[in-house]
Amino acid sequence: MTLKPLFSSQSLQFRYVSENPSLFLYRLFCSGSSAPAPTPNDAVETVFRIVSSSTCSKDLKQSLKSSGVFLSNDLIDKVLKRIRFSHANPLQALEFFNYTGNRKGFYHTELSLDTMLYILGRSRMFNKIWDLLIDAKHKDRNIITTRTVMVVLARIAKVCSVRQTVESFRKFKKLVPEFDTNCFNALLRTMCQEKSMTDARNVYHNLKHKFRPNLQTFNILLSGWKSSEEAEGFFEEMREMGVKPDVVSYNCLVDVYCKGREMEKAFKMVEKMREEEIIPDVFTYTSIIGGLGLAGQPDKARNVLKEMKEYGCYPDVAAYNAAIRNFCIAKRLGDAYSLMDEMVSKGLTPNATTYNLFFRVFFWSNNLQNSWNLYRRMMDTGCLPNTQSCMFLIKLFRRQEKVEMALQLWNDMVQKGFGSYILVSDVLFDLLCDEGRLVEAERCFLQMVEKGHKPSNVSFRRIKVLMELANKHEAIQNLSQKMALFGTSISLPESRDISMDKSHLDLVPC
Predict the structure, then answer these.
(1) Which residues are the signal sequence here (predicted)?
(2) Burial classification of residue 81, based on how many CB atoms lie within 10 Å of its CB (0-12 exposed, 13-18 middle, 19 or more buried)
(3) What pLDDT was estimated at residue 38?
């Protein structure tokens, strides 16, 4: 259930003007027609800045009230998404989430809840995740969905054991409206993505008698295997249980054959798909392209891009990336660049994965200039780097002692909200400390803390030692206080059968 707007667009506009005196005076004394109402993007940016700059709960509430912005479900969804991708402070985000959710008659959307849980999980604040879920259950249990299960388990599985992840899964039995096969599938998908296929297989066999496996269950288990024997075994079990394979099922087998360089089996499987009137799709051909590259046939793989069109299937960015990867592996960068230009001419936009294929080559060849040029091209086209892009770049800058380039990358990360601050900062602080750039190191340290991310203890100790040598005692005290704000927040349930009363949710660290 979501809150329906109680005001018309005209009354909302009046409310916004009446609660913003400066805007009212502007309209009163300026000649001509009335100034336009603030755009939705302006409202999102306004609320985002309020949340990011608030120092306490009272300050946040007062600023939001005085802003005059109507906090609708759509706006809250967008603000939380902005917080997520800008790596803003998770505690400030939680304060905003709780404040908006506590308004009388208001109900958060599923998207808002899942985004908030992701933000908390990324910062390993698992205690707060369970508190939030219990509150959501009491207010509107239907807001907790299978996607919620997936979001929470994925963050837990990244840092905790398989046993602890499964225990967390069991907790959802008292949270979700229906603890069924869909939830089981969410757990299996988490195991495949964050742990290993072996872990997923073991969890499946341990729990399959409590949940009836369906097509999605087997498609999840078929994906990601490196061993064709394992994949074929699940394929047979699926048939024995009367579950009919679909195009996804066949694609999983084609993919495992291609990764194992068993191209003859892969082509036979494609023919079998056609015999059973299951049409191969872009994922099928992308696997074939990748497999041919592994087999050392990049030109033949490129021809697949043309051949697939004859079957009414057109390559997407992932298909082009697979072909580009082949040429990068073969160190034929001219052909790789040619394919990227072809992508653009076809109306496709290269993504971070596309650029990373080149960054990898440049990193291993120690080619600083081409890496920098490619990074600038990437930023100019509006494609934000991901963590892998940042790591290729920052490690190359560290290797060649290019402080200004490293600082430019960091400033872009802070301003545009991409990449992992934790991973990049370790390399950056090493470089800055080696070069004696303590002012910059302190600034980057504080920027990171303001975003809600804890610098590593190793980096902190190194900066602290250099500051002691420089007699910067006030700066040391300031940084020490900032580090003290972070505490251990990784925690999971003690038992498999626990009460949903918060007083019984005493959690133990991983």
Answers:
(1) none
(2) middle
(3) 55
Measured between its terminal Cα atoms, the distance across the chain in Å is: 35
- The amino acid at 401: E
pLDDT at residue 20 in the model: 40
- The answer to whether 185 and 218 are in contact (CB under 8 A) is no
CA 327 centroid distance within chain: 28
Largest CA distance in the chain: 78
Instruction: Kindly report the number of other CB atoms within 10 A of residue 281's CB atom.
Output: 16
DSSP per-residue codes, 386-404: -HHHHHHHHHHHHHHT-HH
Give the separation between CA 308 and CA 284, rounded to whole angstroms: 10
Q: What's the rounded Cα separation, in Å, for the pair 477 and 472?
A: 9
The CA-atom distances, in angstroms, between 59 and each of 54, 56, 62 are 6, 5, 5
Class of domain 1-144: mainly alpha
| Residue-wise pLDDT tens digits, 180-215 | 999 999 999 999 999 988 999 999 999 999 999 999
Residue 124 is predicted with a pLDDT of 92
In DSSP terms, 493 is beta-bridged to 507
Cβ-in-10-Å burial (0-12, 13-18, 19+) of 505 comes to middle
Distance, CA of 344 to CA of 354 (rounded, Å) = 12
**Predicted local distance difference test score (pLDDT) of residue 453:** 83
d(CA 308, CA 316) in angstroms, rounded, equals 11
Radius of gyration (C-alpha) of the chain in whole angstroms? 26
Residue pair 132/162 in contact (Cβ under 8 Å)? The answer is no
**Positions in the chain whose pLDDT score sits under 70:** 1-39, 487-510
Instruction: Give the pLDDT score at 223.
Output: 85
For residue 343, give the 3-state DSSP assignment: helix
Cα(383)–Cα(325) distance, integer angstroms: 19
Q: What is the pTM of this model?
A: 0.69
| Centroid of chain to Cα 232 | 31
Using DSSP, state whether 504 is helix, strand or coil.
Answer: helix
